[in-house]
Amino acid sequence: MTPATATASFFDDSLYTDVAHLTEHTPSPLNTFMVVWTDWGLGLFAILMIWAWLRARTAGRPQLPGLAVPLIVVVAFLVNDVVKSLFHEVRPCQALSVVPLQPCPAVGDWSFPSNHVAIAAAATAALWLVDRKMAAIALPAMLLIAVSRVWVGAHYPHDVLAGLLVGAVVGAALECIVLGVVRSRRAGAPAEPETLLL
């Protein structure tokens, strides 16, 4: 753990502990929902990415921006994982005396930044530039993923904020590049259906 993450963890300890204590007095159905959502919520983003591509294809819009979203998400995950390997922040459920809703990840499965949130944020940012209707669904889902990661005990609040930042920046930046490529192709190529769809 670096001095920066150690400082952030110190300030987040009390907030994380407060959330952990709150879960002890929370109705069981809500806790169960949070556990299920944190495990399976990313599946919704896969559906939204496929849906956005199908909507573009049906409407005759360029398909490359939608097809690129899953690849952008993979890149965001890899970037976030590199950052995670640089900081080596121990999970709060290992460092603090709390009982998380989920079993604590193994030692060496670092906490900062959150991969789950980075993936969700990258998908949301990219979809925002491709299909606002799909992004309108992705945004609250992404925020709920972020909350759930702290709620189940897997992350400090600053972990999810950092994951959100990494994912959003990578997702938006790469999707802007893809959109720029599509615009340049459309500006410089004959108006043939095959060209416009790519």
TrEMBL record:
The question of whether Plastid is a record keyword is answered with: no
Q: Does the keyword Cell membrane apply?
A: yes
Location relative to the cell: Cell membrane
Keyword annotations of the record: Cell membrane, Hydrolase, Membrane, Transmembrane, Transmembrane helix
Q: How does it sit in the membrane?
A: Multi-pass membrane protein
**Pfam families membership:** PAP2 (PF01569)
Gene Ontology molecular functions: hydrolase activity
| Annotated Phosphatidic acid phosphatase type 2/haloperoxidase domain residues | 65-175
Cellular component, GO annotation: plasma membrane
Name used for this protein in its record: Phosphatase PAP2 family protein
